[in-house]
Write a structure and sequence with these properties.
This protein has 289 residues and is α/β, with parallel strands linked by helices. Strands 1-2-4-3-5-6-9-10 form an 8-stranded mixed β-sheet, sandwiched between helices. A two-stranded antiparallel sheet has the order 7-8. The chain starts with 6 loop residues before the first strand and ends with a helix.
Length: 289
């Protein structure tokens, strides 16, 4: 993985599982609140191996955590706790552990949902938010596609198999990378881990079982109300199947100052290092505390 210097550490949650996190110090003089990066459903700290140092180079301390059941974080013996409110409060506890009163949240997909519900569950902790490729209304087609992709979980014997599985699950989101073997090797390194006899995806299968059994999402619009006074940048993949343009317009109708960026020819979800996303993030962070 590429990136600048960071420290690896673990934080023990109140109900047991340990959370692995990385702490990237601000480069040069610290300017503005720390940034907390939150990954998607089955991902981990590696998703931000490139973005975190870019943000740190702007003078921001960056905290990146693997939610329970992912990466090097502990698995939960009670799988019913694999839910966004649990993860959200884990992150508030992590901020407390680090003596961080307020942070700018950068969340992809599930991490965006966590950002969305934080002002309601923990008022005052989120100062601003970058919400990546998810919104207050979630397209059912995208949910169905995620369920289809993650249902193909299982160990493989060779690294080539791991890369092929990565391509099969993600080519729809990155069609321009079809023949780019280096990109898919880089991608696979983020989500696979070596295990006896081969490689496996770096998350607890029980997360998917909970996702499958989750039923209909609650009405998320009430969570948008606190954002009337909170700066927000929404990033959208131009060909995403999870966040529609109609939802973007509905969110903007209720928050006229919502910043927005779109990454062309990328589906769910941009890595946010793409020029269109990064330019918007850099500008956004330059305008918030």
């Amino acid at each position: 993985m590429s990136g600048s210097a960071f420290t690896d550490d673990f934080f023990t949650t109140a109900d047991g599982p340990k959370i692995h996190f990385r702490d990237y110090p601000a480069v040069g003089e610290e300017r503005g609140l720390p940034v907390l990066c939150l990954h998607g459903l089955t991902r981990n700290v590696n998703d931000f191996a490139e973005l975190a140092p870019q943000i740190a180079a702007l003078g921001r301390r960056v905290i990146v955590a693997s939610q329970r059941g992912r990466g090097k974080s502990g698995w939960d013996p009670q799988p019913e706790r694999y839910q966004p409110p649990t993860y959200t409060m884990d992150m508030v506890a992590l901020l407390d552990h680090l003596d961080i009163e307020q942070a700018v949240y950068v969340g992809t997909s599930m991490g965006g949902l966590m950002s969305l519900i934080t002002p309601t569950l923990a008022p005052g902790r989120l100062a601003a938010a970058v919400i990546n490729d998810i919104g207050v209304e979630i397209n059912p087609e995208g949910i169905d596609r995620i369920k289809s992709n993650v249902s193909a979980r299982g160990a493989v014997k060779t690294w080539d198999e791991a890369i092929e599985r990565t391509i099969a699950s993600n080519l729809e989101a990155f069609p321009r990378r079809k023949g780019d073997r280096a990109f898919w090797d880089w991608f696979a390194q983020k989500i696979w881990v070596e295990v006896p006899g081969g490689y496996d995806l770096a998350y607890d299968q029980a997360i998917i079982d909970q996702f499958d059994e989750g039923g209909d999402l609650p009405d998320l619009w009430p969570f948008w109300a606190p954002f009337k006074d909170i700066p927000v940048l929404v990033v959208r993949g131009g060909i995403t199947d999870l966040l529609t343009k109609a939802t973007i317009e509905a969110m903007r109708a209720r928050k006229r100052d919502m910043a927005y960026a779109e990454v062309p020819d990328v589906g769910h979800a941009p890595f946010m290092t793409e020029p269109e996303a990064w330019s918007a993030i850099e500008d956004f962070l330059g305008r918030v505390d």
